[in-house]
From TrEMBL, chain A:
Keywords: ATP-binding, Nucleotide-binding, Transport. It comes from Planobispora longispora. It holds the Pfam family ABC_tran. Residues 3-248 form the ABC transporter domain. GO terms for molecular function: ATP binding; ATP hydrolysis activity. It comes from the Bacteria. This is Dipeptide/oligopeptide/nickel ABC transporter ATP-binding protein. GO terms for biological process: peptide transport. Gene3D superfamilies: P-loop containing nucleotide triphosphate hydrolases. PROSITE patterns: ABC_TRANSPORTER_1, ABC_TRANSPORTER_2.
From TrEMBL, chain B:
Residues 2-244 form the ABC transporter domain. It comes from the Bacteria. PANTHER family: ABC-TYPE DIPEPTIDE/OLIGOPEPTIDE TRANSPORT SYSTEM, ATPASE COMPONENT (PTHR43230), ABC-TYPE DIPEPTIDE_OLIGOPEPTIDE TRANSPORT SYSTEM, ATPASE COMPONENT (PTHR43230:SF3). The keyword ATP-binding applies. This is Oligopeptide ABC transporter ATP-binding protein. Keywords: ATP-binding, Nucleotide-binding, Transport. InterPro entries: AAA+_ATPase, ABC_transporter-like_ATP-bd, ABC_transporter-like_CS, Oligopep_ABC_C, P-loop_NTPase. GO terms for molecular function: ATP binding; ATP hydrolysis activity. SUPFAM superfamilies: P-loop containing nucleoside triphosphate hydrolases (SSF52540). Signal peptide: none annotated. The keyword Nucleotide-binding applies. SMART domains: AAA. One of its GO terms (biological process) is peptide transport.
Length: 313, 293
């Protein structure tokens, strides 16, 4: 088992109190597995990704453990995490345009970055990685402004994985790209896993149909908690949690027309995590809610590798 | 209603404007009342430039844009009938003022004679039209509202005018999956009330969901256009096929489309008319008749 997260709680400290962005999440990612993480905005996806690599000043590690390759990661301790950061776990951020230094050529920037981690630049390896994502070697002599959005995103992908991390977190990396670039970037990401450059991967996105293309397992989160986790095919073909079903029903597909079949969004909005409601957090928006939902549903394994947190599942 | 005839836009680029870049070349299509036309293209295909030219935000280099036969003249009278909504709702509001100030600005500019009481009734009706609860959204600051709410308020603002045409430029790309559908359904309701909508997007599935007709752009030129069913049911241009194949779908894995090779349109070099493949379905492929496909 590559990554094991047990009962992880990460809260944001604000003037009004603690925002319970991650409230007891447990899951595992196996070797050579791509875990797709889906959910609406504000359900804790990005917080989960960030807490595995670097907590910002407002985030507090309240409880739970994270184990990577059998070793516990001190995620609450910024200084001790330095040993793990980029060597063991790495992140591809969403906005590649703002991740690159505009005043440096790409090649120089990569060398400086590696120097800051105390590693010498291996030019052959860097060129090999550029080939792997389908970028010409000339990009090393270019400034970021000379590259397109998809190319910048791929440069950031190469930089994030140069130190061969075991776990790679890709946070909404394709949302700003158009469809054909999206496909190329997602393909390059899957190739990282296939070529063994990274051992496991967490792919964060709100687009279920894209996750379905590359993920082995999909985990759906709602309001800081796990709603459902199952193999990608099962989530899409036989979802058990009402939230997953509604999420899938709200996806337009090519060929679906307003005149033929009107899609519906999910009424209401996710609850405030400052004072999350007791019991099932999806209760207020759920079409199936009944009296028992006032108690919190446990995460139950309803089929092999298929866990759901719903009383009606 | 809205008609574009051989519209061309050339930008001057480089130091001292020494070079030129044709962002839009020879684009002709029309939008009728009660119809959604989706304009589909990748980044740099000129789709936003077309939207801007229709809104009069940037001048046209060649060709003409007419609304009900009258050439587009940006000004108060024109904006009474044509309005635009853009991608990022957060940057459309001034963060130090309450969000409903955008309605007040419409009143000051267009309806100075309407009494405050009557205006409040109209604002409430427009806000309800976009399926928001006036009590929840009026009197709030932009940061207190969600992206979907802000985007819908901008549509409500446009509805207060005597609107004929709405330019919706990537209005759903910053919203998440479930809010996205709510906004799209709202556009569909507006369409049923007789409004013409030009829906600019790079997302094919969103485009096909709403639109009666679709225009596919590449490098500023129309590669394929016509009724949505025909364009996507029977895509003829290799570029359209490639786009379709790249759309992630839920129940099927990505298919490999044949690569687009050696097509003068693909390289953006060729110019020429559109070829009518079947009724109401136009393809810009110079080689279509001799094409082995």
């Amino acid at each position: 088992m590559s990554l094991r997260v047990s009962d992880l709680k990460v809260y944001y400290k604000t003037l009004k109190g603690q925002v319970k962005a991650l409230d007891g999440v447990s899951f595992e990612v196996g070797d050579r597995e791509i875990l797709g993480l889906a959910g609406e905005s504000g359900c804790g996806k990005t917080t989960l990704g960030k807490s595995l690599i670097r907590m910002d000043g407002r985030m507090r590690h309240i409880g739970g453990t994270v184990e990577l390759d059998g070793e516990e990661m001190p995620i609450g301790d910024d200084r001790r995490m330095n040993a793990f950061r980029f060597h063991e776990v790495s992140l591809i951020p969403q906005y590649s345009m703002s991740a690159l230094n505009p005043t440096r050529k790409i090649g120089k920037m990569v060398a400086e970055l590696l120097h800051s981690r105390g590693v010498a630049l291996d030019a052959g390896k860097l060129r090999g990685r550029l080939d792997a994502v389908g970028l010409p070697h000339e990009v090393l002599d270019r400034y970021p402004i000379e590259l397109s959005g998809g190319m910048k995103q791929r440069v950031v992908m190469v930089v994030s994985t140069l130190l061969d991390p075991s776990l790679l977190i890709a946070d909404e990396i394709t949302s700003a790209l158009d469809v054909s670039t999206q496909k190329a970037v997602a393909g390059a990401l899957a190739a990282f896993r296939d070529d063994g450059l990274v051992k496991s991967m967490i792919f964060v996105t709100h687009d279920l149909s894209l996750t379905y293309q590359i993920a082995d397992t999909i985990m759906v989160m709602y309001a800081g908690k796990l709603a459902e986790k199952a193999p990608a095919k099962e989530i899409v073909e036989a979802p058990r949690h009402p939230y997953t079903r509604l999420l899938i029903n709200s996806l337009p597909e090519v060929g679906v027309r307003y005149a033929d079949r009107k899609l519906t969004g999910i009424a209401g909005s996710p609850p405030s995590l400052l004072n999350p409601p007791k019991g099932c957090r999806f209760r207020d928006r759920c079409p199936l809610a009944f009296a028992q939902c006032e108690q919190e549903p446990p995460v139950v394994e309803v089929a092999p590798n298929h866990s759901v947190a719903c009383w009606k599942a | 209603m809205l008609k574009l005839d051989n519209v061309t836009k050339v930008y001057r680029v480089g130091a001292f404007g020494g070079k030129t870049l044709t962002a839009v070349g020879d684009v002709s299509f029309d939008v009728r009342p009660g119809e959604v036309v989706s304009l589909i293209g990748e980044s740099g295909s000129g789709k936003s430039t077309i939207g801007k030219m229709i809104l009069g935000l940037t001048p046209v280099t060649g060709g003409s844009i007419t609304l009900d036969g009258v050439p587009v003249a940006p000004g108060k009278e024109y904006y009474r009938h044509v309005q635009g909504v853009f991608q990022d709702p957060f940057s459309c509001y001034n963060p130090v003022f309450k969000a409903d100030r955008v309605f007040q600005m419409i009143k000051e500019a267009y309806y100075p004679g309407v009494s405050a009481k009557d205006w409040a009734v109209r604002v409430n009706a427009a806000v309800r039209d976009v399926r928001l609860d006036p009590d929840q959204v009026l009197g709030r600051y932009p940061h207190q509202l969600s992206g979907g709410q802000l985007q819908r308020l901008l549509i409500a603002r446009a509805l207060l005018l005597d609107l004929k045409l709405l330019i919706a430029d990537e209005i759903t790309s910053m919203l998440d999956a479930s809010t996205r559908i709510d906004v799209l359904n709202l556009l569909a309701e507006l369409k049923e009330r007789g409004l013409g909508v030009l829906y600019v997007t790079h997302d094919l599935s969103l485009g096909t969901y709403l639109a009666e007709r679709t225009v596919v752009l590449r490098h500023g030129r129309v590669v394929e256009m016509g009724e949505t069913d025909k364009v996507f049911g029977n895509p003829l241009h290799p570029y359209t096929r490639q786009l379709l194949a790249a759309v992630p779908r839920l129940h099927a894995s990505w298919e490999e489309a044949e690569p687009v090779t050696d097509c003068p349109y693909h390289r953006g070099e060729a110019s020429g008319g559109l070829f009518e493949a079947e009724e109401g379905h136009f393809v810009a492929c110079a080689r279509l008749e001799s094409c082995p496909e």
